[in-house]
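User: structure tokens for this one?
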Amino acid sequence: MGRWPAADHRRRAPYNYTTDGGQTIVGSATEAVHELFRRANIRYQIVMYPWVRAIKMAESDKDTCVYSTTRTEERETKFQWVGPVAPDNWMLFAKADSSIQLASLDDARKYKVGGYRGDSVTLYLQQQKFVIDEAINDDQNAKKLDAGRVDLWATGILTGPFVANKMKTRVKPVLNIKKAELYLACNKTVAPDTIQQLNTTLKAMVKDGTMEKINKKYQ
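Assistant:
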């Protein structure tokens, strides 16, 4: 089908992020996408864009996909879906020495919560009438949590510890908000046969243990 420009939506470790000063895109979902397209024998290109721009590109531009994307009800009919390419339970994290204890999401309303602007976790909490202290990336959220500028940090179950370790911030999970998975969201002009081929190939990667092996590397 020719060149496939896949927009890698955000610097979201450990699923998709850059190294070498932004030159190399890596991560568990990135590894899965590389292997998926290699096996499907489909030409493609991965480029890093800010999340808001990337998801708009995938919605409007021919032969464009975005990952890693949460498959929400609001997005369901806007894209064709390949996946899941990674697990991503949504969590609230506190500093490791915090005394905060949460039995339910309502318990978190009295605290200041930090989130990633445009992220599905942030959007979900805003729908639940939370006022979120928004950052442009999760590195900033880790810094704000460490400095006491927010009490809680809303992010993915693997993202939180991975980014916190990089930023030398010690965190602990205090509440599992919601079970979630990440997908490749593709423009609706992509041929249905191609979407089916990718999903069939991905199922084979799950069956032969490839996906489990990739995800374990980043836990």
